[in-house]
Every structure is written in C-alpha cells, then in structure tokens.
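Long-time lurker, first post. I've been practising inverse folding by hand and with some scripts of my own, and I keep getting stuck on stretches where the structure tokens seem ambiguous. Below is the full token string for one chain I'm working on. Before anyone asks, I'm not after the true native sequence, just a reasonable design that respects the backbone. If someone could post their per-position residues I'd love to compare against what I wrote down in my notebook.
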C-alpha cells in the first residue's frame, strides 16, 4: 500500500467519525422536536445545524475535500470555545474541555491526513485522487448557508450585551440591557427585575418578557420599528393560562388575565428551560402576595373590583380623607418623602392609589397645597405655599357624575396642578372652600401682583424647583 492510500484510509476513518457524529446530532434534534426530551427546542436547532455541517463536511472529506476538513476543525473549535465562554467555569466546564480536546484532536488529525493525501497524490504519478469532485462541490450548497447562519448566531451569543438563549435571573441581566429597559420606561427606577427572557436574535429591543417585584409584562418591535409593550400589576392577575395559538415548537406562550377585564398580557418562555416552571410559579407566588380579599373575590365572581376597597385593604386612603383619618404609616411616608415637613400638619388628603401611595395623591396642609404622581417609575411633585395659588377652577369637560376635575394655577399658568375629588359631596365643597379661604387669607401683596401680572416671583412657590410646569393628578 503506497503512502497516498495510507493517508486516504486514515482520512476516511476520521470522515466517517464526523459523519456519524452528524447523524447522532440529527437524532438528538429529532428527539427534542418530538417532545421526548426536556432540553429546550432552541438547542435542537443547534444540534440539527451542527449535525448537518458535520455530516456533509464529513461526506466531502470522504471524497478528499481539504476545505471540508478545515471547516470541521473550525466548527469543532468554535462550538467548544463558545460553550466554555457562555457556560463559564460551572459543573460542565470539565466535560466541555474534554470534548473540545477529543473532537479537536480528531479534526486536526483529519486535516493533516487530508493535506498529506493530496501531497502524496501530487508526488506519485501512479496514485489517483479517489473521490467524486461533484460531491466535494455540491456539499458546500448545504454547508455554506448553514455556516453563515450559525456564525451570526455565535457572534450574537458571545458579543457584549448579547441576548441569552435562556431565562436569566434579574441579577444576571446585562447592565447595558437594564439601562436600556429604564430608558424605554420598561423598568421603573425603584423596580427590581426578577426573571427575564428575550427571544430577540441580536438585541432585547426585538422582544422581551420580564417579571419584576411589581409587574409582569412583555414588549416587542412592530414591523415599522415601533416598540410596543403590555403590562399587568402583580396582585391584579386572576389567572395565567397557556396560549396554544401563540406557541410554537420552541416557545410556550401564556396569557395573564387581569381583574379589570383588559386584554390579557401575553408572554413567551422557552420550552425546556430550567427556569421555565420557576417563572410561572414565581408569578403565582408574587400575585398571591400582592392581592387582597376584594381582588380575589372579584376574580372568582368575574366582576370589576371596588378599587376604593382594594386601596383601603392595602392600607391606602381609597379617596379623600380628613387629617384624623390619615394613618401613622401614611404620615411616616409623607414625611419620609418630604411632602409633609417637620412641624407641618395635614388638613386633608386625597389619593386613589390602589397598591402604593407613590402612584399619586393630593395633600393640603397648614402651609402647603400640592400633589405628586408617578410617571415611568419616577415620582415628581408640584407644591404651592398658601397664597401662591392664583386661580382654582373647575374643568367641566373633564368632570363627570363621579368626580369633579379641578385645576389650581400659579402666576401666568406657569405652574399648575390638576386633580379630582368626589363629585357633588359636601365634603368636597368644604375642602375646596377651605383651600380658597386659606389662599385668600395668606396671599401677600407680592403674590397678588404676580398673579395679576402673570410674572413669577423669583422666590418660587414650588417646593420642588425641578418639577414640570404642567401635571395632572388622577385623584
């Protein structure tokens, strides 16, 4: 047997090994696709594509293709290194390194024998290159597109800020991704992310499913590039059900139904992910923790809840209340946020916040009148020292049989506050009358002149100098 035959036979042994490896990868993908494995279907794509590359490159190598041998070596090294980089030094690190050394060694020896085979044929006039040229060429029709697709996926998985193929805990979310979520108002400043999954290929901007300590939601990018999101408050979820219509072979879709009959929030999780079931269970646990008797009863009876009762069960005012009705915990919160200063006494408070007082409220004290609101997770406020309000008017177009809409304005309407109080009640009339009376009694000549001319005094009446000039408080 001449040298060419020796290297050809060795080359074909290694080629057969990788063709066999490709067949095994394909079988693994088939098992996952048919639902007989708990491995995530996204991994099945990897198995299937790797199997195709190994099989067709092995077939081309069998017919003497040196380039196919190099392609196998490249992908063996790439797959092995990516697994080590992505998974890190965990319990699978030793296994990944051993696999890389074994298959990398086989691929390297196959490449060496391929080149020695061609060299021996070139140097020996009696030797012939055994193999079909059309197989060596036709194989690239399959291998090149798959390699291009896989290469893009590999780059997407290892570059900074990459999209994880798995569900990740809040502490493992990339810092740049968290910053983007807050920038796009998908995550409030004080909100804590717990679990996150994105089906985006290059960026989480394409798609995201997020569970925080307050909300469950998802976002996606429309065909025109517009970012759309849907959210539901934990505590207000009646049920979470699988949505078969929105599921596919890789992802399970779920619909979270709200107590107030809004459209359900649909979110997606990868099948077979280790945190898949934990994500669903965490929703149930947190929702049960944040709900109360009124919300639970409303869900059971299929009716809209009494939000005033929901608020009161959560220790909140649930409407307008007098000073003696303000609980110690609310007083402590007001003082902690410096909405009620030391030595300042409250006169009345109004808030229809259901879960947290940060949602919004209006407060009249013996020194100030103002309100606060929460917008995109950031709480802001507007305050007037007594005497600083120029006009208190009823906004008839925004009022109804349940609430009356008011607007308190400063000089030149540069600073104003819109708020609501219960309509047609004696207590509402008394509260507005008290505000008008105190404003009239406390207004200095300088403040009266500012109201008449519309020129704001340099000594701003706004307790919060950075507050926006126009705000609406839904109370």
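-- Answer (accepted) --
I ran through it position by position. Result:
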């Amino acid at each position: 047997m001449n040298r060419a035959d020796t290297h050809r036979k060795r080359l074909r042994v290694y080629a057969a090994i990788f063709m066999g490896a490709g067949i095994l990868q394909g079988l693994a993908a088939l098992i996952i696709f048919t639902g007989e494995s708990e491995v995530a279907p996204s991994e099945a794509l990897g198995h299937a594509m790797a199997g195709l590359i190994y099989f067709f490159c092995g077939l081309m190598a069998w017919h003497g293709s040196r380039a196919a041998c190099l392609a196998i070596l490249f992908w063996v090294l790439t797959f092995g290194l990516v697994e080590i980089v992505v998974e890190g030094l965990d319990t699978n690190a030793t296994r990944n390194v051993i696999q890389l050394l074994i298959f990398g060694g086989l691929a390297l020896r196959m490449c060496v024998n391929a080149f020695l085979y061609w060299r021996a044929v070139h140097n020996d006039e009696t030797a012939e290159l055994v193999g079909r040229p059309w197989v060596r060429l036709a194989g690239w029709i399959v291998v090149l597109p798959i390699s291009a697709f896989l290469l893009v996926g590999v780059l997407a998985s290892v570059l900074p800020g990459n999209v994880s193929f798995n569900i990740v805990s809040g502490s493992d979310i990339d810092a740049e991704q968290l910053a983007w979520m807050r920038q796009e108002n998908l995550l409030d400043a004080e909100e804590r992310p717990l679990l996150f999954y994105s089906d985006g290929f290059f960026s989480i901007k394409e798609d995201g499913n997020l569970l925080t300590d307050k909300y469950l939601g998802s976002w996606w990018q429309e065909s025109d590039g517009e970012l759309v999101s849907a959210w539901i408050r934990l505590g207000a979820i009646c049920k979470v059900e699988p949505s078969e219509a929105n599921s596919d072979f890789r992802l399970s879709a779920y619909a979270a139904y709200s107590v107030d009959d809004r459209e359900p929030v649909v979110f997606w999780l990868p099948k077979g992910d280790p945190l898949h079931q934990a994500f669903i269970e965490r929703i149930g646990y947190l929702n049960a923790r944040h709900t109360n008797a009124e919300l639970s009863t409303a869900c059971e009876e299929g009716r809209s809840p009494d939000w005033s009762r929901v608020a009161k069960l959560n220790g909140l005012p649930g409407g307008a209340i007098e000073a003696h009705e303000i609980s110690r915990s609310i007083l402590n919160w007001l003082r902690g946020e410096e909405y009620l200063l030391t030595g300042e006494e409250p006169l009345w408070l109004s808030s229809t916040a259901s879960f947290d007082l940060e949602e919004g409220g209006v407060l009249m004290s013996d020194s100030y009148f103002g309100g606060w609101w929460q917008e995109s997770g950031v709480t802001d406020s507007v305050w007037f020292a007594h005497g600083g309000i120029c006009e208190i008017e009823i906004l008839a177009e925004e009022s109804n049989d349940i609430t009356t809409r008011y607007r308190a304005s400063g000089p030149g309407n540069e600073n104003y506050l819109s708020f609501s109080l219960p309509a047609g009640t004696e207590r509402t009339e008394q509260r507005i009358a008290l505000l008008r009376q105190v404003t009239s009694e406390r207004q200095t000549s300088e403040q009266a002149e500012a109201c008449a001319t519309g020129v704001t005094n340099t000594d701003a009446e706004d307790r919060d100098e950075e507050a926006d000039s126009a705000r609406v408080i839904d109370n």
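A couple of notes from the structure itself: Residues 3-158 form one domain. The longest strand covers residues 251-258. Happy to go over any region you disagree with.
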